[in-house]
C-alpha cells in the first residue's frame, strides 16, 4: 500500500514536470530531479457562488434514483442524481456560472447527513470547461458545512482544497434549497 502511494505520488510529480511519459517506451516509471527553478508554482483561487437544488415542480434539477427497500431513519439509503445550476448571486435568475453534476445519498442513520460525490462544472470566463470534484459529508442541519475538494481539471488541474457551505434558503415543502458556497483551491 505504502509503495503504491509512493508510486502514485512520484507519477503525479513526474507528470507535472514532464507532461507525460515518453511514447512507445518500455519505461514504466521515471523520476526526474526536481529543482527550485522547475517546481510548479501553486495558485490559490477562491470562488463564491450559489447552488440551487429543486426536487419538485415541472423542471426538477435533482431526482430520486434509489429508494431504500424498507423504511429507514432519516431516509438512510436514498440516492439522488442532480444537475443543479450554480449562479453568481442568490437569486435563481442571477447569472449562471456553472453546474453541480453528481450524486448525493442519505448516508447517516443518526441525523440528516449526506454523502456528496459531485463535480462542479464551470462555464464562466476563463473557468469555462474546468471542473472541481467534491467528495464529502454534508451534515445538512448544521448552519455551516465543510466538504473537501479532491481534484480538478482544466484550469484546476491537480487541485485540492475546501468548500464551505451555508444554507441560504431551505423550503422542504417546495423541495427547494439554495446554498451559498465559498470554495478555496490550490492548483498549478
Ligand atoms: C464555454 O465554452 C463552450 C464550449 O467551448 C462555448 O460553447 C460557450 O459559449 C462558452 N461559454 C461562455 C460563457 O463563454
Ligand atoms: C463566504 O465569504 C464571505 C466573505 O469572506 C463571507 O461574507 C460569507 O459569509 C462566506 N460564506 C460562506 C458560506 O462561508
TrEMBL record:
Biological process, per Gene Ontology: phenylpropanoid biosynthetic process
Q: Which residues cross the membrane?
A: none
- Tell me where in or outside the cell this protein is found: Secreted, Extracellular space, Apoplast
Q: Which domain of life is it from?
A: Eukaryota
Q: Which UniProt keywords apply?
A: Apoplast, Secreted, Signal
What's in the GO CC field?
A: apoplast
Signal peptide limits: 1-18
Summary of the function given for this chain in its UniProt record: Dirigent proteins impart stereoselectivity on the phenoxy radical-coupling reaction, yielding optically active lignans from two molecules of coniferyl alcohol in the biosynthesis of lignans, flavonolignans, and alkaloids and thus plays a central role in plant secondary metabolism.
Task: Say which family it is in.
Answer: Belongs to the plant dirigent protein family.
> Could you give the subunit structure recorded for this chain?
Homodimer.
| Record protein name field | Dirigent protein
Native source species: Glycine soja (Wild soybean)
Amino acid at each position: 500500500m505504502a509503495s503504491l502511494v509512493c508510486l502514485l505520488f512520484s507519477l503525479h510529480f513526474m507528470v507535472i514536470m514532464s507532461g507525460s511519459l515518453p511514447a512507445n517506451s518500455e519505461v514504466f516509471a521515471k523520476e526526474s530531479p526536481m529543482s527550485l527553478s522547475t517546481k510548479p508554482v501553486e495558485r490559490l483561487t477562491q470562488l463564491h457562488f450559489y447552488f440551487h437544488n429543486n426536487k419538485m415542480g415541472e423542471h426538477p434539477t435533482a431526482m430520486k434514483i434509489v429508494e431504500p427497500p424498507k423504511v429507514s431513519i432519516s431516509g438512510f439509503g436514498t440516492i439522488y442524481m442532480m444537475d443543479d445550476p450554480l449562479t453568481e448571486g442568490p437569486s435563481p435568475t442571477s447569472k449562471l456560472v456553472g453546474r453541480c453534476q453528481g450524486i448525493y445519498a442519505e448516508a447517516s442513520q443518526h441525523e440528516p447527513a449526506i454523502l456528496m460525490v459531485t463535480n462542479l462544472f464551470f462555464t464562466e470566463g476563463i473557468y469555462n470547461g474546468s471542473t472541481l470534484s467534491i467528495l464529502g459529508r454534508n451534515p445538512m442541519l448544521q448552519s455551516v458545512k465543510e466538504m473537501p475538494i479532491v481534484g480538478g481539471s482544466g484550469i484546476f488541474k491537480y487541485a485540492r482544497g475546501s468548500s464551505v457551505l451555508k444554507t441560504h434558503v431551505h423550503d422542504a415543502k417546495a423541495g427547494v434549497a439554495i446554498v451559498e458556497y465559498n470554495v478555496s483551491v490550490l492548483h498549478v
